Amino acid sequence: MRTFPVLMFLFCLFLFTCTENLHLLLTDYSLNFRFNPSPNAWTFFNNDLIYVSEPAYISQKFGHTFYFFLLAVLIFHAWKSIRLVFLISLAAALSSEVAQLYFSRSGRLIDVGYDLAGMLLFVGLFYLYCLVKLLQRNNNARVSSLRTDDSVKS
Q: Which residues have C-beta within 8 Å of that of residue 88, sequence separation ≥ 6?
């Protein structure tokens, strides 16, 4: 049952990837597909960093990062495996950006980086959480042993 949210999230990613206009999908609920059987594959390597200061660009790239952060949370919740978080996130990021080339969108390698940043943010926060829990456990064990030593001395 924990797999279902991951599958739904990946299905939504597929819809977001293949719709002709993501803005129209999100605002007017208009779902349009236009397949391009022979896209220019070189556009995958173009970067669009010239727009980096524009608010629309920033919010769109934040969306990439946030979506893949949530995807990583769901994957980890489903299978408790950081390795699967890496593999599924990488596969989803690459396939969604390449698929955009075939659906009249602009799939970009740089967007794979934004996607993976979200996954890496989850992994980093997860390991930070594990480190804090480990330090707390060690501190509690040390305090407990000090109390035991004090009671033995009295």
A: 6, 71, 75
Written as six digits, the tokens of 76 are 């980890």
Instruction: Tell me how far apart the alpha carbons of residues 65 and 118 are, in angstroms, rounded to a whole number.
Output: 4
- Structure tokens given for 152: 């033995």
Task: Tell me the pLDDT band of 9, cut-offs 50, 70 and 90.
Answer: very high
Q: What is the DSSP letter of 52?
A: T
Compute CA distances 129 → 97, 119, 139, whole Å.
31, 15, 15
What's the 3-state SS for 92-151?
HHHHHHHHHHHCCCCCCHHHHHHHHHHHHHHHHHHHHHHHHHHHHHHHHHHHHHHHHHHH
100 CB-contact burial (10 Å; exposed 0-12 / middle 13-18 / buried 19+): buried
**What confidence tens digit (pLDDT) does each residue in 22-63 have?**
888 889 988 899 999 999 999 999 988 888 899 989 999 999
| pLDDT per position as a tens digit, 89-106 | 999 999 999 999 999 888
96/59 Cα distance (integer angstroms):
19
**Is the CB of residue 13 less than 8 Å from the CB of residue 76?**
no
